Amino acid sequence: MTFNVGVIRGDGIGPEIVTEAVKVLDAIGAKYGHEFKYTEILMGGCSIDACGEPLTDDAIKAALSSDAVLMGSIGGNTSTSPWYKLPADKRPEAGLLKLRKSLNLFANLRPAYLYEELKEACPLRDDIIGDGFDMMIMRELTGGLYFGERSTVEEDGQLVARDSLTYSEGEIRRIAKRGFDIAMKRRKKVTSVDKANVLDSSRLWRKIVEEVAKDYPEVEYEHMLVDNCAMQLVKNPRQFDVILTENMFGDILSDEASMVTGSIGMLSSASLNDTKFGLYEPSGGSAPDIAGKGIANPIATILSAAMMLRYSFDLDAEANAIEKAVKLVLKDGYRTIDIMPRDGSTVKQVGTVEMGDLIVERL
Ligand code: IPM
Ligand code: MG
């Protein structure tokens, strides 16, 4: 089969980590007899530099005409990069938000899994780690604070900034269904996270989640306040299976979940709509401080490519093969700098390209 993959390399470490994921895809293609055709798409700071805006209409069209899009990361240093002197809607992140919205990618899946081999990179105590944990953060991606009306105006002699947080029943229902569907394929537990003791949008969230839960009698579900969830992720991450939450809470909690699994360099993600199309990207950012040094961890992007094979192309065996190859490399003791063990036990530190090569070898 031939698959058309849009490729957004982006900024910072983006190009380096995407190169490794493409290398892995090509190896899969050769082994299983598929052809992946790539279309390069500009987005983020590199698009600002080349076209004057973070995402052009042509770029959106190119993404739309692909079967799926693989992305690295976008953005730069928010204190020093000239991109952040531009108005908010012209900055790199605006491109990503526009792409998510234009393609209606409302469901963001972020699996946080502790590899046996990475227990030593996990900052939590051994008695908390226990036999490890495996959770899926299901983040709503096209609503809430990220897409509400914004303004900064002068009132009574001072500046006042406003961001509005809106959710409709329909937006909540469709993500809740996705969350429960995924739970059915996992350990059948959903923790819906909100701030219902303060926010109206959270109270509606709870009501709709309860309605949706009725259609999934096999799934055990609970509500948890977001501040408590942030604490529970460190106190007892083993209690979680699917964490279902709104846009900004999901952004924050997924970074936290990634760190308890050892490193954000391991956390893949899939952003899906109602079709087979998806945008696949590591959950981490462009890490401008280490860009171009050849030390970034490409595993999150490689695992995102595996998610692409599974969710957009229905290539389960191929996705499993990538995940297995990643495990084998870790088992063989190879680590990028971000996942070095805290106890100094003997492993071999490798760079971005070497990590990609090692994974390809094991395919
Ligand atoms: C993420 C990122 C983005 C987000 C930024 C770059 C806009 O942090 O994908 O988690 O907040 O959604
Ligand atoms: Mg984030």
Structure explained in plain terms:
By secondary structure, the chain is α/β, with parallel strands linked by helices. It folds into two domains: 1-109 and 269-363, Isopropylmalate Dehydrogenase (3-Layer(aba) Sandwich); 123-260, Isopropylmalate Dehydrogenase. The protein is built from twelve helices and 14 strands. It has helices at residues 14-32, 45-51, 57-64, 92-102, 126-129, 169-184, 200-213, 226-235, 247-260, 299-311, 316-331, 352-362, and strands at residues 2-10, 35-40, 68-73, 107-113, 134-140, 150-155, 158-163, 189-194, 220-225, 242-245, 270-272, 278-280, 334-335, 348-349. The strands form three sheets. Strands 2-1-3-12-11-4-5-10-8-9 form a ten-stranded mixed β-sheet, sandwiched between helices. α10 runs antiparallel to α11 (316-331). The protein is globular. The model has no long low-confidence stretch (mean pLDDT 96). Bound molecules: 3-isopropylmalic acid and magnesium ion. Residues 251, 255 line the site of magnesium ion. NAD(+) binds at residues 285-297. Its cofactor is Mn(2+); Mg(2+). Belongs to the isocitrate and isopropylmalate dehydrogenases family. LeuB type 1 subfamily.
